[in-house]
Design goal:
111 residues, 4-stranded mixed beta sheet, alpha+beta
């Protein structure tokens, strides 16, 4: 934190929050002022560093996370998207058996 900068941090307890979610929501101005310190913390602690959560009127609107954590999260987000697409296709009846798909693609399945 910079000298002379006064930050009013509001802590809210929410039992649904994981250990990775910050419980302090900063204003956009406070987040901007703390950005250098936050990036330094990310360098020191890597993916385990707490995110910076901020938004207007201290309502969470955005999060800045360490890049190491971002790299870990991306494959999970891709898996979630694939699952969403699969559920939508199952619900709509757009399904094919593996045998049908293999025949369509000209691939021989091992037996």
């Amino acid at each position: 934190m910079r000298k002379g900068v006064r930050i009013r941090a509001h802590r809210r307890y929410d039992p649904s929050m994981s250990k990775y979610e910050a419980q302090i929501v900063r204003t956009s101005r406070e987040a901007r002022e703390e950005l250098g310190d936050v990036v330094r913390r990310f360098r020191e602690r890597g993916a385990g560093a707490a995110p910076l959560i901020f938004g207007a009127h201290r309502r969470p609107e955005a999060a800045i996370i360490p890049f190491d954590l971002y790299r870990e999260i991306v494959p999970l987000l891709e898996d979630l998207e694939i699952a969403r697409i699969a559920r939508a296709r199952l619900a709509s009846g757009e399904t094919e058996s593996l045998d049908e798909l293999a025949t369509k693609l000209g691939v021989a399945l091992p037996r």
